[in-house]
Design a protein that fits this description.
195 residues; alpha/beta; Rossmann fold; 6 helices; globular
């Protein structure tokens, strides 16, 4: 018996925000779409949507990229989950995380939003924070730089060199949650040593 899962990639729409720290969730989702050989398309729920199976006969996966700005993504995410009848238990959100160092991944289910307005809005719209998160470390702002300015900025050249591997691991971590469970994904990706 196969299940239906949702993978949500958070970011801000528009070329102005492409490639910024706040959009790493969206970037990782694009890699998953590439693995599935599909292009996301506009959907009535206010998202870019794609559907695939990672393996023949495997679970169905709904890829969701909200068309709204990060802080207002909850309504469209909730609408997509309702439309495709995906339980919150089977929802994985990929997002930037300033509270862990750049080039680090952490996975967890539920918990607070840690000041992340995208997570806050999804939890509010879904009336529960009990979804799985792939927390993609982007580090903390240097010095006294404003957090909002920092997450809307691009990466340093040193970070850009490591970014493709970080995004690939983020995509793989989300798929591992679906295929093997959260604990297996945590064991694999929390213990990784990075050069």
């Amino acid at each position: 018996m196969t299940a239906v899962w949702a993978l949500v990639g958070l970011g801000n729409p528009g070329s102005k925000y492409a490639g910024t720290r706040h959009n790493v969730g969206e970037m990782a989702l694009d890699l998953i779409a590439g693995k599935c050989r599909l292009k996301l398309s506009a959907h009535r729920t206010g998202n870019q949507i794609g559907q695939c199976r990672v393996s023949p006969g495997g679970d169905q996966i709904i890829l969701i990229k909200p068309n709204s700005f990060m802080n207002l993504s909850g309504g469209s995410v909730q609408a997509a989950l309702q439309y495709f009848n995906v339980p919150l238990d089977n929802t994985v959100v990929l997002h930037d995380e300033i509270d862990i160092p750049f080039d680090t991944l952490r996975l967890k289910k539920g918990g607070g939003h840690g000041g992340h307005n995208g997570l806050r809005d999804i939890a509010k719209a879904c009336q529960s924070p009990d979804f799985t998160r792939v927390r993609i470390g982007v580090g903390r702002p240097p010095g006294r730089q404003d957090v909002a300015d920092f997450v809307l900025s691009g990466f340093t050249s040193a970070e850009r060199a490591k970014l493709p591997l970080l995004l690939a691991d983020s995509a793989d971590a989300a798929l591992t949650v679906i295929e093997s469970g959260l604990l297996a994904a945590q064991q694999k990706f929390h213990s990784q040593e990075r050069a």
